Amino acid sequence: MKILLKHVETEGYSPNLQSYLTEGGYSALKRALKMKPEEIISEVKLSKLVGRGGAAFPTGLKWEFTRKAKESPKYVVCNADEGEPGTFKDRIILEKDPHLILEGMVICGFAIGAEQGFIYIRGEYFEAYKILKNAIEEAEKNNYLGKNILGSNFSFKINLYRGAGAYVCGEETALLDSLEGKKGQSRVKPPFPTFVGLKNKPTVLNNVETFANIPEIILNGGEWFSKIGSPLSPGTKLYCLSGDINKPGVYELPTNITLKELLEKYGGGVQGKLKAVLPGGVSGAILTTENLDVVMDYPSVQKAGGMLGSGAVIVINESHCMVDLAEKCAEFFEYESCGKCAPCREGTKRAREILLNIAQGRGELSDLKLLKELREVMYDTSRCGLGQAALNLTVSAVEKFPDEFEEHISKKKCKLNICPVGDVR
Amino acid sequence: MSLEKCKEELKKVLDQYSHDREALLPCLHVAQEQCGCLTEDIISFLAKELNLPRVEVYSTASFYSMFSFEKRGKHVIRVCTSLPCYLKGSEKILKTLNEELNVTVGHTTSDRVFTLEAVSCIGACDKAPAMMIDEKLYGNLTPEKVREIISKYKGGRDA
Q1: How do residues A156-203 score in pLDDT, each as one tens digit?
Q2: Closest partner residue to A240 among B29, B65, B125, by Cβ?
Q3: Which of B25, B132, B140 to probe the A interface (max A CBs under 10 A)?
Q4: Is 0.95 surpassed by the pTM of this model?
Q5: Closest-CA distance of chain B to residue A242, Å
Q6: pLDDT at site A422
Q7: Are A284 and A402 in a shared domain?
Q8: Which domain holds residue B13?
């Protein structure tokens, strides 16, 4: 069952309009333009599609809120700023099937009553930027974008906008500020972008993968989609396998796949002995060998204590020290915190300090409790997901591998000889 | 590129965005690419054109890691140090580059050919450890492979 990579995995397929049309591209748009906007939204709702960027909000509901919002104009924004470490799924669609995203966005524009769309693509995706730019030009030339699309009275434009290297811009409100030419700092929610979004106007903001699902939903119906994969969050998902795995890569699979199947059947097995898995990048808690039977849909992963997020499955084997990895990830969050709110700005700094102390043999047992407290404060009080999630990995590592942390603290020993615990500086 | 020529390019972008603030990031990208870094002149010029205080332009520009105020080398090497690459040995890649180029992270070689940067995930985790040199992606790196790639660039060929 392939929805997102159907074209990409077809032999000889290239990212141009001709290839897309040969595979039946833009036929969903033709159909959508003959439907009522409300009908499109009800199909998307019926599909039970949830946002694939990580937050898993029901897409149809988001579209409905925006359509019903009173302010105008309205905007459609595609989040192509994938930056969660371990995520490289949107890159594939952006580089290999750009028209799929454009078609999804135009349909969204028609459904919510917007005439302007934006794609915010991360600055480091140079190749994808060029391909997307070309695809937009092709679509404009052939009237899939622009004025009176395909003879209808609906007009829609898409602007391409490059980010400039800031992880936080993947967060929706920070992205909107960046798109307005400002620093990418998050806004306080509510109000949500569906009511107060880009330039304070109602805005649908969806991930690349979310938009890429739309054409097939329109062609086959929402009910068809809702029966694929796990009933808890139906459809297929792009899972990104990286780390200590034999066959890293992006795999499109129905959401009822288990973690074990994903690692063994598709990933070709773990390199070395499995220690931990991050199912949704470094922002989520770790899972261990106990969780291998978890079904890889959003609610099930959450129930197991993790977070599916963008589907960045990072595999960690026994050769790595959890204290070292937690410190590395804390360094990442400290660097990427936008600095706007104190809990995140200061919290990420202190967390790294504590972990560095532990790694260098200067930790105390009370530090472990302190980390848990810090996580709670940051979770409760940070403005956006970055600060709220920054210590998920650390605290789950302390919970699942307490001996490792205690050994660094009490015995000043890193049994894998990775942390510089001996060299007290 | 001269400042005047750069300003001409910037004006084109400013017009595209009807001199709205939205033009700022696209302008900064153009200036960075054309001039190799952002200068005070460019900041002042954009502030005037966009009717913003200079400090606002500066603080926006300094927020993003792809912009710099010091001239970068001819080639910018971005080594990913995020978890998936770290698991696969990005430390070794950085160390090799330190030794090969005799430069530390965040700095430019004395001949101004290479700037070495450690960056967050570049979305190439299936090819970890990975790095980018300018716009080109290199994956599945080993110290040997890094030395080979660098020697090509040193030889004047852009690989």
Answers
A1: 999 999 999 999 999 999 999 999 999 999 999 999 999 999 999 999
A2: B125
A3: B25
A4: yes
A5: 5
A6: 73
A7: no
A8: 3-63
Q: How many domains are contained in chain B?
A: 2
In a domain, B141, yes or no: yes
CB contact at 8 A, A331 and B120: no
Same domain, yes or no, for A303 and A363?
Answer: no
Domain membership of residue A4 (yes or no) is: no
Quote the minimal CA–CA distance from A61 to chain B in Å: 29
Q: Which of A86, A122, A165 sits opposite B83 (nearest CB)?
A: A86
Among chain A residues, the shortest Cα distance to B84 is held by: A243
Q: Is residue A127 domain-shared with residue A38, that is, in the same domain?
A: yes
Residue A425 has pLDDT above 50, yes or no: no
List the domain range (segments joined by +) for residue A382.
Answer: 322-410
Cβ contacts of B23 on chain A, cutoff 8 Å: 181
Measure the CA dihedral A384/A385/A390/A396, to 10°: 140
pLDDT at A114 over 50: yes
* Residues sharing a CB contact under 8 Å with residue A155, sequence separation 6 or more, in sequence order: A115, A146, A147, A148, A149
Whether residues A338 and A283 share a domain: the answer is: no
Residue A281 within any structural domain of the chain: yes
Residue B2: its pLDDT value, please?
A: 81
Would you call A248 and B122 a contact, using CB atoms and an 8 Å cutoff?
A: no
Q: How far apart, in whole angstroms, are the C-alpha atoms of residue B53 and residue B51?
A: 7
Mark yes or no for CB contact B66/A84 under 8 Å.
no
Domain boundary residue among B63, B87, B105?
A: B63
Quick check: A380 pLDDT over 60?
A: yes
User: Is residue B158 scored above 60 in pLDDT?
Assistant: no
Note whether B59 and B84 are same-domain residues: no
Q: Are residues B138 and B81 in the same domain?
A: yes
Scanning every residue of chain B, which has its alpha carbon at the shortest distance from the alpha carbon of A84? B121
> Rounded mean pLDDT of A327-349?
97
pLDDT in tens, B40-95: 999 999 999 999 999 999 999 999 999 999 999 999 999 999 999 999 999 999 99
Structure tokens at B62: 């300094």
CB within 8 Å: B125 and A88: yes
Helix (H) or strand (E) holding A314: strand A312-317
Q: d(Cα A335, Cα A329) in Å, to the nearest integer? A: 10
B128 with A83: Cβ contact below 8 A:
no
Mutation to test the A interface, candidates B49, B60, B63, most A Cβ within 10 Å:
B63
In a domain, B70, yes or no: no
Q: A62 and A163, same structural domain?
A: yes
Counted domains in chain A: 3
Residues 6 or more apart in contact with residue A340 via CB below 8 angstroms: A185, A186, A383
Q: Cβ separation of B123 and A320 shorter than 8 Å?
A: no
**What does R_g of chain A's alpha carbons equal in angstroms?**
22
State the average pLDDT over residues A133-150.
98
Q: Do A86 and B67 touch (CB under 8 A)?
A: no
pLDDT beyond 80 at A265: yes
Q: Which of chain B's residues have a Cβ under 8 Å away from the Cβ of A167?
A: 120-121
Q: Looking at this predicted complex, what is its ipTM?
A: 0.96
Q: Is B89 left (phi over 0), alpha (psi -120 to 50) or beta?
A: left
Q: In this predicted model, what pLDDT tens digit does every residue of B20-33 receive, in sequence order?
A: 999 999 999 999 99
Q: What is the pLDDT of residue A196?
A: 98
**Pairs of CB atoms within 8 A across A/B:** 128
The closest of A16, A21, A212 to A131, measured between CA atoms, is A16
